[in-house]
Amino acid sequence: MKTLDYYVVDVFTDTRYKGNQLSVVYADEELELNQYHDISREFGYSETSFVHYSSAENVFKVRSFTQAKHEVVGAGHNLLGAVCLALLKGWDIFKGHGSEPYVLIKDDKIPLQITDQAGLPYVGMKQSPAEVVKTVDAEIIAEAIGLTAADLNLNGWNINIVKTEVAHLMVPIKNKTLLEKAVSHKNLLKAASAEFGFEGCYLFTTNDIDAEYIAEARFFNPSIGIDEDPATGTAAGPLAGYLEQLGYICKDHDCRILQGEYVNQPSVIHVNVTDGGVWVSGSSVIVMEGKLYL
């Protein structure tokens, strides 16, 4: 009977049992598609990442799946947790990369920055520059999240689909009280996602520019089986890019986004908008490990 090593890490945190849970499976070769799906469903987390180091290509390769059989790409918690795990376990995954480490998620090359923070690996993932795709009517989204259109009026900002790698809907919320009040009406969100061409719905409200967190956020993505995600790097990057385009934050300035408060898994996502793209960064900790039987 074949076995695979697995690990569970908490991502975008330096504290166990906080952050976003991620299962990571080390597989020396590609699995059958149904095996990826079955294993991801068995773990039951929002995403499961499957990793291995390819000696032929000299690169660490990652594939990630949700419980709903959706393959996830982009530089999010699924990638950050996998890279942090490799560093925590001492795996040599950057052989021959020199001063410019990177990994592959499916077929996409993601540049990385590796430092240390409080004894943990601190990993930055570079996303593409933020692109505003289109605007969505407030009435449509308000109904889908149990609020009114007036509740979505924050500084007069539009509800925009913004993309760095994955297109997510940025939904400004007037204040934290209303952010907490929001609920996901799954069928309405799925319908809006299909109609307008976005993947997840990133609700956010802003704090003062000098506050500990520039924004607090929640993420609903029922279309791929995620009711509420505690940390979403692929949405935090677009939000940072959007806030920079609005003039709310400056380029080359480190900011932090708090997510996961309302599911008791607070996560801290570091973002920095540069001319070349958006850096999304954080740490992870290992919670458990064991053997998986195929």
From TrEMBL:
Listed name of the protein: PhzF family phenazine biosynthesis protein
UniProt xrefs under InterPro entries: Phenazine_PhzF-like
Pfam families assigned to the protein according to its UniProt record, in alphabetical order: PhzC-PhzF
NCBIfam families: PhzF_family
Classification via Gene3D superfamilies: Diaminopimelate Epimerase, Chain A, domain 1
Species assigned in the record: Mucilaginibacter jinjuensis
Stretch forming the signal peptide: none
